């Protein structure tokens, strides 16, 4: 007996329809408003059900073909529920902020936007680790867990998770591709084109300033009557007000690093000196002579996914892309990114100099930044100073084999 699924134009039905195909449950999709004002709604002999996860669970338990979409024992039942909840709380919630910001549906908020991308990245990383030795999320066959998570990721993979963002999550990518290319998925969602280049990050809206005109004092009224301003003069005043507003906005957006007290170390001078002199014997003594720890900080950054680096070409491309996307950091930073080892066992580690005591906002805004574990080092320690020199001189490491490096300057 077929069940009626009441839908409207804006209903989100994909996971329900995919679940019904795997479960062998026939659904009649009826385009009409439900009597309870929700959509979609499933009509059952026991009553009405709404919310897509509840409907999907109900259909999965009604499977007529022996499929165990909700697991084969109590523990697997709990695991399926775990991943369904994970899809909602750790993918759908932050993912919606990312998507709706790009689409222009909600007002852009830079902090919320960056956090949403970071939260999605963490979810993909968790999935990637879980799927390292697994084909599906629960058990040996596809379950409702795979359906829920894959469908939740679908708009993200199609619109904003581009090839650069997703390339480190190869196990998640493999699993996602396996899911969406199965016939039960394909019959519902069709062919999926993955995002190759993410849309540009929206710009925050300029603040709206409402100008108010002061009421003239009584003694000024007579003078104003005698001196009626010309229209051109008013236009000139308006232009001046606009220019003042732009200057005010620009002033408010001044980078805090530009307001720090000057130090003996001039970054541009250091970069020129570094490139023209021998690093260990000349450049490093000059650097420490001019370095002031109150105005600068040095960081070691280790790549989190070294176990996935098996090709020099791809590793170099990874570093090159990172540097290109970090162009706004050049005014406040310098560093060397090194590759260690040989194919197929490679590692990436970097040593960065930054203005100020924290990682600059310009670097934190680069997606690649989250792919690294950052550690601020004690520049008073002589052993640390030797390590910094090893990074910037591209050699001298005793515990690993140096392969190649790139300088960010």
Structural class: alpha+beta
Please provide the ordered H/E string of secondary-structure elements.
EHEEEHHHHHHHHHHHEHEEHEHE
Radius of gyration: 29 Å
Q: Give the terminus-to-terminus CA distance.
A: 69 Å
Shape: elongated
Query: What do the pLDDT scores average to?
Result: 86
Beta-strand percentage range: 5-15%
Q: Oligomeric status of the shown chains?
A: single chain
Helix content: 40-55%
Which ranges are low-confidence, i.e. pLDDT below 50, for 5 or more consecutive residues? 210-215, 228-243, 245-252
**With helices defined by DSSP (H or I, 4 residues minimum), what is the helix count?**
15
Beta strands, count:
9
Taking the sheet with the most strands, its summary is: 5 strands, antiparallel
Biggest sheet, spatial arrangement of strands: 8-5-7-6-9
Would you give an account of this structure?
47% of the residues lie in helices and 14% in strands. It is of the alpha+beta class. The strands form two sheets. The chain has a five-stranded antiparallel β-sheet, sandwiched between helices. Helix 1 packs parallel to helix 2 (52-61) and helix 3 (74-103) runs parallel beside helix 5 (144-159). The longest helix has 30 residues, at 74-103. The radius of gyration is 29 Å and the shape is elongated.
């Amino acid at each position: 007996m077929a069940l009626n699924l009441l839908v409207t134009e804006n209903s989100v039905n994909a996971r329900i329809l995919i679940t019904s195909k795997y479960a062998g449950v026939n659904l009649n999709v009826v385009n009409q408003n439900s009597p309870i004002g929700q959509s979609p709604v499933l009509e059952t002999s026991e009553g009405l059900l709404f919310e897509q996860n509840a409907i999907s669970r109900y259909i999965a338990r009604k499977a007529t073909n022996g499929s165990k979409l909700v697991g084969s024992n109590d523990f697997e039942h709990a695991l399926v529920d775990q991943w369904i909840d994970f899809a909602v709380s750790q993918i759908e919630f932050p993912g919606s902020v990312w998507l709706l910001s790009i689409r222009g549906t909600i007002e852009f908020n830079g902090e919320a936007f960056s956090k949403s991308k970071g939260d999605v990245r963490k979810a993909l990383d968790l999935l990637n680790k879980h799927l390292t030795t697994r084909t599906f999320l629960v058990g040996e066959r596809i379950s409702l867990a795979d359906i829920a998570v894959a469908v939740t990721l679908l708009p993200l993979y199609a619109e904003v998770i581009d090839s650069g963002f997703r390339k480190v999550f190869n196990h998640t990518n493999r699993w996602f591709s396996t899911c969406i290319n199965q016939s039960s998925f394909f019959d519902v969602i069709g062919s999926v084109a993955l995002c190759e280049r993410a849309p540009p990050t929206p710009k925050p809206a300029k603040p709206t300033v409402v100008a108010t005109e002061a009421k003239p004092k009584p003694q000024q009224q007579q003078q104003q009557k005698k001196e009626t301003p010309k229209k051109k003069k008013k236009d000139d005043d308006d232009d001046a007000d606009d220019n003042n507003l732009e200057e005010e906005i620009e002033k408010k957006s001044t980078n805090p690093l530009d307001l720090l007290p000057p130090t003996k170390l001039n970054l541009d001078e250091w970069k020129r000196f570094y490139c023209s002199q021998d690093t260990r014997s000349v450049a490093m003594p000059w650097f420490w002579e001019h370095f002031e720890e109150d105005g600068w900080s040095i960081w070691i950054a280790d790549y989190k996914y070294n176990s996935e680096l098996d090709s020099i070409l791809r590793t170099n491309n990874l570093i090159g892309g990172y540097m290109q996307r970090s162009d706004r950091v050049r005014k406040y930073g310098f560093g060397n990114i090194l590759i260690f080892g040989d194919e197929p066992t490679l590692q990436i580690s970097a040593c960065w100099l930054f203005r100020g005591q924290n990682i600059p906002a310009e670097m934190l805004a680069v997606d690649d930044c989250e792919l690294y574990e950052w550690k601020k080092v004690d520049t008073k320690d002589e052993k640390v100073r030797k390590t910094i020199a090893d990074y910037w001189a591209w050699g001298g490491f005793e515990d690993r084999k140096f392969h190649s490096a790139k300088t960010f300057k």
